[in-house]
Every structure is written in structure tokens, then in C-alpha cells.
Amino acid sequence: MQNGHVRAQRVLYVVNPTAGLGASAHLGRRLAGGAGAVSSPDLEVVLVAADSFEELRRQAAAELAGERRPEALTVQGGDGMVSMGAGLGAGIEGPLGVVPSGTGNDFARAAGIERGTPAVGIERMLTALRTGTASTRSVDAMRLMVDGTEHVAVNSVNIGFYAVVNRRANELRRLPGTARYVAALLESVRHFEPLEFAVRIDGGPAESVAAEMLTVLNGSSIGGGIAVAPHAVIDDGLLDLFVVGGLPRIGLLTLFPLAMVGLHTRLPAVTFERLTSIRVLVPKGVLVYADGEELRGPGRADCTLDLRIDVGAVHLIETGTRR
């Protein structure tokens, strides 16, 4: 990287086969003509595509630890793939490219990355890296510890009700975009009960918080464009805490439709706070999701979640004008 521009001769391209109802795997096969590396005179693309996140992470980490490290890492899929890429990026201390092809793509929305055309996106990304016309933008990430394990997230960490919605939405693979989250919402609200959290913000005193939903955001939206934190920005050095407390079940049903038109901020049950770190005592059995991926499932004992912002941790590749 020199003068804000990026040129690469070797790119690691990691694709989630399940994102976009299988479109990612199809595009990955077209790109590489199968699996492994595809070469051109001035750009080599090493493809990693596997059946699980664990295997994707393992294969990508092995490539990054090899003797011929790539100059850039590109991930294709949803928010979970971006957070994986952000975590792996430390292996090359280089830039991260994002080609959205997941269901929600909320981080891509926040970053102004074009969505809906992954074939165009990867062609534009590789051309920009090959010709040196790509540039970088430093954006924030979230680092968190749950059950003794470190994680990286780029868009949102969800505790409580929306984590339950995440879990159900991941099971409804055949529904498109926001429709998946709406269907999951309708199913999840029937059996959900309010929760009690102990919360400490920016090292302050612990406070008891009764809430149905507690979400920490780097980007502004969840669920494929539901802007629950409309003022959140991914490169301002701050995170946004979104808390919903005291809503009956019918209120939870109306929360996200109201958020889709920006009216949820008027609800007395909704509060916001800006922060750089947070500690949450998560009650027994409460789910924790980050960027649509499960970090803590049902049946687990109570635990402490520690989360902090990592300012400018991700050097995001940009290939043109932001949307």
C-alpha cells in the first residue's frame, strides 16, 4: 500500500458457499474454474471455498500463514464473512475486500458497498487490485470475549430477543432478504420473556437493565436494512448501544416495522447510548449473536461478555464511489 492506493499480485479470495442461496459457490467456481489457484500474468487469485465457517477459517488461515502470503484478502458472503475476514486480516496486516452476497449485508450497506451484483463486484475488485486503482478506508471493528473465546465483529452484536430472531432466521434459508427476518420475528415473539442484565459502560458502575433486546452496533442497521441505530457510523470511533425495554409482545411485533420507517426512536421503551466499551452479564440460556452468527447458544450458564471498539482496525478496499 502506497499513497492510499493498493496493488496486489496475489489475492486470497474466501467465499461462503451458502450465502445468497448458493450464488457465492457458483461464482467462486466460475472464478477459479474449479478450486485452488487461478493465475494470470499479473494477478494470482487463490480461492478458498468450504462447506462450513470452521473449514473456511482453517483453510484461509493456512494460506495466510504460508510462505507466499497474499497482499490482499477478499471475502464474499454476508456480515459473518466480513467479520471472519476482519479477524483473519491480521495475518497479512493488509487490506480487506468485501463482495456482498449474503442475505442481510448490513455492514456493506454501512460501508456504501454496492450490493446485489456479486459477479460485477468481484470483477471490479480484482481489476482494481490488479491495476492499482483500489484505495483503502480505515473503519472500526468490535472485539469481544464470550465464554473465554475472542471474536471480531464488524456490524452488530445482539443479546436477547434479536439473537433469537437471528437463530430462527438462519433456519429459514429459502426466504429472501428482510422477509426472512420478518418471518423469524413473527415466530420468535410468541415465547420470548423479558430479561435482566447487569451492564457496565466505559468502565463505569454496573447497572441493572431490564430489557427484551440489547444490541451494540458499529453499523446502523440489522436484518437487511432495518436502521435501528440511524446515527451510527463505522469510522467514528464510537459504538451505539440500542436497548429495548418494557415492550409487550405486540410492541416487539411493531418495533421493526416502525424502525423500517424511522419511527421507533420515538418509543419510550427505546434508548440509545454511545460508547467505546461495554461489559454485560448475560443470564443463563440467553443467546448471543454477532453479525448473524451464533456465539452463545441455548442451555449455557451465565457469562460475562466484554466488548470494545477497535478504532480503524479494518483497512477496507474501495474500488469506486460509495453508494
Descriptors:
18 strands; globular; alpha+beta; 34% strand; seven-stranded antiparallel β-sheet
Compact description:
With 323 residues, the protein is an alpha+beta fold. The chain is built from eight helices and 18 strands. The model is unreliable at 32-37 (pLDDT under 50).
What does this structure look like?
- It is a single chain.
- The chain has 323 residues and is of the alpha+beta class.
- The protein is 27% helix and 34% strand.
- Helix 6 crosses helix 7.
- About 2% of the residues have low confidence.
Q: Uncertain runs with pLDDT below 50, 5 residues or more? A: 32-37
Order of helices and strands: EEHEEHEHEHHEEEHHEEEEHEEEEE
Task: Describe the largest sheet.
Answer: 7 strands, antiparallel
Determine the strand fraction and express it as a percent band.
25-35%
Mean pLDDT: 87
Shape: globular
Instruction: Give the count of helical stretches.
Output: 8
Write the topology of this structure:
Elements: E1 5-6, E2 10-15, H1 23-32, E3 36-39, E4 44-49, H2 53-64, E5 72-77, H3 79-88, E6 96-100, H4 106-111, H5 118-131, E7 134-146, E8 149-153, E9 156-160, H6 161-171, H7 177-188, E10 195-201, E11 207-211, E12 213-217, E13 239-244, H8 249-260, E14 270-275, E15 277-282, E16 288-290, E17 293-296, E18 303-318
Parallel strand pairs: 2-4, 2-5, 5-6
Antiparallel strand pairs: 1-7, 3-4, 7-8, 7-18, 9-12, 9-16, 10-11, 10-15, 12-13, 13-14, 15-18, 16-17
Helix pairs in contact: 6-7
